[in-house]
Amino acid sequence: MGSSESKPAEPEDLAPKPAAPVQKQELDKPWRSFKWDNISELKRSLEKFTPSDPNVKDIKILVAGQIGAGKSSFINSINNAFQGRITSAALVNSSSCGKSFTTKLKGYRIRKGKVTLPFVFRDIMGLEPDVLAGSQTEDIINALFGHVKDGYEFKTNPLTHKDQHYTSDPSLSEQAFCLVYVIAADTFQLADDKLIDKLKIIRQRISDGGIPQVIVMTKVDECTLVKNDLRKIYYSKKIKEKMQMCSDKVGVPMNNIFPVKNYHDEIDTEDDIDVLILKALEQIVNLADDRLIENSDI
What is the spatial distance between Cα 238 and Cα 232, in angstroms, rounded to a whole number? Predict the structure, then answer.
């Protein structure tokens, strides 16, 4: 018989449980070296840039990505950095209708004051998971190789050689020399596998043609650490993990992935936003020019 002083065992489900350890989101040191005071040097270098082939006046860059990821905003943000003010050459959809605001292929020039810089960004309809929704993978591939003229309106069926917007034998100047995927940090992990498959198909096809690819990861300020201080971007464990996820799923190496914050509700430009945008642009332009040199040697 038990002692009168003995107590019944405490039920296991009512026993106090140790609190789960809180994961640290700020790393002790930045995982990528970055010069925040490098904005003037970046601007000068990009403003002086000229394509390596004298027969090519402008470096063309195609911008693709999820609907709502910020393709048009990224183009505007580049222009803002050089103009020193908020611009809106590429129209941005402020609604949340889930449909791409861009329906036609259009090229946007980047300017410094009234001077046109030798970069042209070609914006296309946003990618959707469904096979017959959003921009067609064939249209994107054809646009990269210069077969699609500006003004082409994306349709259910991809462009064919019989269409008036199709260029059968594009010149070097009509081709794009880099593909930029714009991917939103806050939604990419939820992206449909069908959308990822589209990106992989495009990557495989253009990799065979030697076209480099860069990922621009937008909406990084959805991370609380970065929202409070943009300079914490390379201290953020969450941002690094999201970039690694993009690299693993799409196949683009980490050194070609750049987290940025697009201009959204700001009414003046900010150096910390600009320097991230310009660093991404520098890599895009250099890779595109490398590809131009290779094409010129063929």
Answer: 11
Between CA 40 and CA 45, with CA 44 as vertex, the angle to 5 degrees is 115
Q: Are 258 and 215 in contact (CB under 8 A)?
A: yes
Torsion on CA atoms 189, 194, 200, 201, rounded to nearest 10: -170
Tokens of 259: 């987290």
Question: CB–CB of 184/154 below 8 Å?
Answer: no
* Across 229-238, average pLDDT: 95
153-157 LR contacts (CB < 8 Å, sep 24+): 153/103, 153/104, 154/103, 154/104, 154/105, 154/124, 154/125, 156/132
Rounded to two decimals, the pTM is 0.85
Six token digits for residue 18: 């140790």
Nearest to 219, CA basis, from 263, 180, 186: 186
Q: Strand (E) positions, 151-256?
A: 176-184, 213-218
Task: State the burial class of residue 56 (Cβ atoms within 10 Å of its Cβ: 0-12, 13-18, 19+).
Answer: buried
Nearest-angstrom CA–CA distance, 239 and 236: 5
Distances (CA, A) of 260 to 74, 169, 187: 9, 36, 15
141 in Cβ contact with 205 (< 8 Å): yes
Query: What confidence category does residue 134 fall into, taking pLDDT thresholds of 50, 70 and 90?
Result: very low
